[in-house]
Specification:
Mn(2+) binds at residues 610, 634. With 1146 residues, the protein is of the alpha/beta class.
Length: 1146
């Protein structure tokens, strides 16, 4: 017998599992848990949230037994009257947006209705916790129905406030009489009252008899897949021949040719010249041709030089010659790996006017001119509010919400991997401030749209501003932002005081209950766990300030809160109502959807750090909004160019864009010292290496500022993969097509989009790959279709029909959010391919590089989008120790890649040869540290011994050295020309290459070897950040010296070379037969080493030449050790002729 556990608790929703099996066809299998879902309103009625049980075609008995089958049952209630579907959906969405959903493994899913999210009042109707008037009926405490502006809907002229339930009762059972004035209602249709502001809007009818899940993807109910003459899956033909529907809403297609162009297409499309969204800007031949020639010349020179070095040994110091030759061979190999992928650099440009014309201009397929752009889900990740200040994250969120992209197509998800209430309330404060900031940006065209950066601009803020009220508006918004900053910075103290007050109240209640029970017996002190309390007076389900069971950083429930509910489909313009701070007349005041997500964490599970958090967001967003594109940003990287999302979409929507897995934007940084002492801007990498890779298969993924195609993250092969077989070198040596039945390797095996006749989209295997969520599985083909370019030209294959994305999205319901809670639970990825072939890849510190490598290995391409102004900006550590630890983490990830199956040596034939060389260099470059350290000590050894790497400085050696040096300098000049970087930036990169190579890279290699050989994992932890004497001073952190063991090798190299120069000069001066050539050679290379280490030495000095004690200690110990070693090797004698003479080891 089954049991329906409907928990009758006010303001809560619970999902409970039933253990009784149900038999028969269409019933869940034996042992499968069943989910019951309902809630009781404040007025006493039971409102059921249903998700129709879909009889899945792709399921099988084995899958159903192995994976949990979720469905929803509606408990019968006698007073549960049928309500208009439009009204009930809006009521439910309002409820969902005001509820905090929690749940996870072995726990029920609850939806706690939040009376308020933050201490301050909320005014925007989309925001969680938005207030509304209460029903005036006696005994009813429900809220009055509100419109999209948050204004109460009052059906009678007497303004009697009545809720939806009571109004329905008055119409059905009260004769349509108003309970307030006792006069008949003039309008008794709720839908008419709600939709007065959207009269004339085109509503696409839903097919009768279809459930919500069936509407999401009717392709799963269609007959055999339609194929074109090329044996490929033809979506356009399927749409027209089967009248299929896709996605949110229902797309209705014409059954007859309504145009007068070719093939029934409108003449506007066939006769209008097709314009591309992007164009490739090739590097001028006057720069690129000499650049390639110099690379070839230097390769020949290096080969001849190394051959000469091998043949001409230095018999007097064979050990010195041998070490130098080995190092030079490795340097030549490393230079080739770095230089060869730079043979084909390109620049790209976008045309935003064409994008607007194609997607946001009225056409025959889109008469209303509504945006036909695909949706974008933006992911922002944060983990620790102490290391990542919530104010920084809040500014990033505000810049995303204000981005210039269709509001209804944009959704923002914040991943709080620490489950901190501080981050939660900071995001709520940001959502509240967005009510003012976002319309202000739209009204006055503000750039950048990060309030902290905008108000700190040093340029004239009034330039090009023409509205007369700009000064007044800016002054008001600046004051509001200052108050927002104060509230956000005061949240830690506010949360602590609130929690203390509630804890004291709970203790008093417990003591009172104890006294009532104990009577005259002695009372023992009561210990109550000190909880963290939310603003509405309930326990925070995440991490508590005082950790307790199930409330620690690694042990808490999953949490989802819709901070800003999905906006309405039509623009919502502001007005001049009293009480509004600014006049937003004719300005769209809608805000994009904002969702707070904290995935479930439990002891005993490997949560896979950032990669696991991103995969949880991928699954949750697929269920809630399912944007076909995903933009991921770090919490300190904000949108600097409001049109950046449109620029990235130009590449995705252009012809051939369906083969792009991601668009990578360069990382730009703020707060860097003007001299960029430690090469924090990484301009050589972002403006030289990445542009060069863009001419191959595409740039690598660098962890932030990347616009992904969702279907590529799911592990699918690119479309038409059989037509694009790169082979070893597709340009010169095309490969024969292999038998498609050949089994792919475990590393490259991926899902198919149905390119082959015998390899359709096998949805029956999806549960094992993606998990047991049918919502998630059904969303995959929807995202694939919506992410296609427009079929607006005969040359565009497999595109989507224009206008299908103009249909309004479905409203959020509680069952959808409950499903999102289930997919972020800690157990969901068990026995699936998440982290292995699907989503962000696990197993490496640099999961970003591995994830991009897997996509390129499957044949996808990527592009590099450089915008003016910069697309995104962030922060970077300017402190020496922080910078070294950052480089250490990157190098450690590269070593892990080298010793894993993601090594480019094992890449598939779909990856181009030069792209493979670039990825091989990613895994090999840290190993250069061994040879670099040896080479940095060679000048000192040469000066100590009086020998040199060659027997004599003859003309041949000097000629080779001059040729190699000149070609390197000329290559640098040409790189500066085509990449538009500065010479100082190139030199800073060279300096930090040696600094990082002699410190962080060496530690990373040692750590990787210990992990591979001995299984020992070593973590280099950062010390707590400290500020300078003057915290308000700009770049104060630059002068802070924090000791780290990574500093030991560079310090040793500097001290040894300085002492060696002094010893060499002394020997030569006082020698009977001075050997000036060997001295000059050794001193030249020693100065070369010291010149590269100059920023490191300057960083050790701190501000005003101050140096920490530990530096003096190490310097003294090293100087004493080397001096004693020198005295023991060459003891002083009475004869002056022996001073500086040759010596032999005892």
């Amino acid at each position: 017998m089954s049991t329906n556990n409907v928990l009758r608790v006010s303001q809560s929703v619970r999902l409970a599992s039933s253990s009784d099996p149900q038999q028969g066809d269409g019933k869940p299998p034996v042992g499968a848990p069943t989910v019951k879902f309902a809630r009781r309103t404040l007025s006493g009625r039971y409102v059921s949230y249903s998700r129709d049980d879909l009889d899945s075609d792709f399921g099988s008995t084995d899958f159903e037994k192995e994976f949990t089958n979720y469905h929803v049952q509606i408990p019968p209630t006698p007073d549960n009257q049928l309500m208009d579907p439009v009204i009930s959906a809006k009521v439910e969405e309002q409820y969902v947006s005001n509820s905090l959903f929690t749940g996870g493994c072995n726990s029920v899913t609850r939806a706690h209705l939040m009376d308020k999210v933050i201490e301050s009042e909320t005014s925007h109707p989309q925001m969680a916790g938005a207030k509304g008037s209460s029903c005036a009926m006696s005994g009813c405490d429900s809220k009055v129905m509100r419109d999209e502006r948050g204004v109460d809907i009052l059906p009678c002229e007497c303004d009697f406030k009545i809720c939806t339930d009571c109004f329905s009762d008055a119409v059905k059972f009260g004769g349509g009489i108003c309970p307030g004035c006792k006069e008949p209602y003039k309008t008794t249709e709720l839908e008419e009252m709600v939709n007065n502001d959207v009269e004339g809007r085109l509503q696409l009818p839903a097919p009768l008899g279809m459930s919500k899940m069936e509407r999401r993807l009717s392709i799963m109910r269609s007959q055999k897949l339609t194929r074109s003459q090329t044996s490929d899956w033809d979506h356009n033909r399927w749409l027209f021949e089967t009248k299929g529907t896709y996605g949110y809403g229902n797309a209705i297609w014409p059954t007859e040719n309504t145009g007068d162009g070719e093939n029934g297409q409108p003449s506007e499309l066939t006769h209008k010249p097709w314009r591309p969204l992007t164009r490739k800007l090739k590097i001028p031949a006057a720069i690129l041709s000499p650049y390639r020639l110099l690379i070839f010349v230097r390769m020949v020179a290096l080969g001849l030089f190394l051959a000469w070095r091998v043949r001409h040994k230095n018999e007097d110091a064979i050990w010195l010659w041998g070490m130098s030759v080995v190092c030079e061979l490795w340097f030549a190999f490393s230079w080739l790996l770095d230089q060869l992928p730079k043979l084909c650099p390109v620049n790209r440009a976008t045309d935003l006017a064409v994008l607007k014309e194609k997607f946001e201009t009225p056409t025959i397929n889109n008469p209303s001119g509504k945006s036909d752009l695909p949706g974008i889900d933006v992911f922002v990740s944060t983990a620790d509010p102490e290391k990542e200040p919530p104010l920084v994250t809040a500014n990033t969120i505000l810049s995303i919400l204000a981005a210039d992209y269709p509001v209804e197509k944009l959704s923002c998800y914040v991943s709080d991997d620490g489950g901190a209430l501080l981050t939660f309330e900071a995001m709520a404060e940001a959502a509240s401030f967005a009510n003012l900031w976002v319309p202000f940006c739209r009204k006055h065209g503000i750039e950048p749209r990060n309030p902290e950066s905008y108000f700190n601009l040093k340029k004239d803020p009034y330039k090009n501003k023409v509205r007369p009220d700009f000064v007044k508006d800016r002054r008001r918004v600046k004051r509001e932002y200052d108050e927002f900053k104060v509230r956000t910075n005061g949240l830690p103290e506010s949360i602590r005081r609130r929690s203390d007050a509630y804890h004291a109240r709970e203790e008093m209640k417990a003591m009172k209950r104890q006294r009532e029970v104990a009577n005259d017996d002695p009372i023992e002190p009561i210990k109550i766990p000190k909880a963290t309390w939310m603003a509405d007076g309930t326990h925070w389900p995440g991490t508590w300030l005082n950790p307790s069971s199930e409330h620690t950083r690694g042990d808490h429930a999953g949490i989802i809160q819709v901070m800003l509910k999905p906006p309405s489909d039509e623009p919502l313009f502001g007005n001049t109502e009293e009480g509004r701070p600014l006049d937003f007349t004719d300005i769209d005041i809608r805000l994009p959807m904002l969702v707070y997500v904290s995935r479930e964490k439990r002891p005993g599970y490997d949560h896979n750090k950032k990669a696991g958090a991103m995969n949880a967001l991928v699954r949750a967003s697929a269920i809630m909004s399912n944007g076909p594109f995903i933009l991921n940003l770090d919490c300190d990287h904000y949108v600097y160019n409001s049109e950046a999302l449109r620029e990235g979409m130009c590449f995705m929507m252009d012809r051939g864009g369906d083969r792009l897995c991601y668009v990578q934007f360069p990382q730009r940084f703020e707060g860097i010292d003007p001299s960029d002492r430690y090469a924090n801007n990484n301009t050589v990498f972002f403006d030289v290496n990445m542009r060069a890779l863009d001419g191959l298969q595409g740039p690598v993924y660098v962890g932030t500022g990347c616009l992904f195609r969702r279907i590529a993250l799911y592990g699918f092969d690119p479309p038409r993969s059989k037509e694009h077989r790169s082979g070893c070198c597709s340009c010169c040596f095309p490969q024969k097509r292999k038998n498609q039945a050949a089994v792919a390797s475990e590393e490259t095996r991926a899902l198919r989009l149905g390119d082959y006749e015998d390899d359709e989209m096998a949805m029956s295997t999806f549960p094992k790959k993606f998990g047991n969520s049918s919502f998630l599985i059904d969303s995959i083909p929807v995202a694939e279709l919506q992410g296609r370019p427009l079929a607006d030209h005969p040359a565009v294959q497999y595109g989507r029909q224009p206008g299908i994305l103009t249909a309004p999205r479905e409203l959020l319901d509680a069952s959808t959010v409950a499903e999102a809670i289930s997919v972020i639970s800690c157990w969901y990825e068990d026995k699936t391919e998440w982290g292995e072939r699907v989503g962000w890849i696990y197993g490496s510190v640099t999961e970003d590089v591995v994830t991009g490598y897997r996509m390129h290995n499957r044949g996808w391409k990527s592009v590099y989008c450089v915008t003016k102004p910069d697309a995104f900006r962030g922060t970077a550590p300017i402190n020496l120790t922080d910078r070294l630890h950052q480089v250490l983490r990157w190098a450690t990830g590269s070593v892990e890649i080298f010793f894993s199956r993601n090594n480019a040596l094992f890449a598939s034939s779909r990856m181009k040869i030069l792209q493979r060389v670039a990825y091989l260099n990613v895994g090999i470059y840290p190993f250069t540290s061994f040879f670099l350290i040896v080479y940095c000590f060679l000048p000192a050894l040469s000066l100590f011994t009086g020998q040199f790497i060659v027997k004599t400085l003859n003309v041949t050696f000097l000629t080779y050295l001059l040729l190699i040096t000149l070609t390197l300098c000329m290559l640098a000049v040409l790189e500066i020309k085509w990449s538009a970087i500065e010479l100082e930036e190139w030199w800073r990169n060279e300096q930090f290459w040696l600094i990082g190579g002699t410190s962080a890279h060496l530690a990373a290699v040692l750590q990787g070897l210990l992990k591979v050989i001995a299984g020992i994992e070593i973590s280099f932890t950062l010390t707590s950040k400290s500020a300078g004497d003057d915290e308000d001073e700009e770049f104060a952190d630059l002068y802070v010296v924090k000791w780290s063991s990574l500093m030991i090798p560079p310090i040793t190299i500097m001290m040894v070379n300085l002492i060696a120069i002094a010893v060499g000069v002394s020997r030569t001066i006082y020698s009977t037969i001075p050997e000036w050539s060997k001295l000059l050679g050794g001193v030249f290379f020693s100065f070369w080493v010291l010149a590269h280490l100059y920023p490191f030495a300057k960083g050790l000095m701190g501000r005003r030449r101050r140096m920490p004690t530990i530096v003096f200690v190490w310097s003294g110990l090293l100087a004493i050790t080397i001096s004693l070693l020198w005295v023991s090797i060459n003891p002083p004698s009475g004869s002056s002729s022996q001073i500086g003479g040759s010596f032999t080891f005892p």
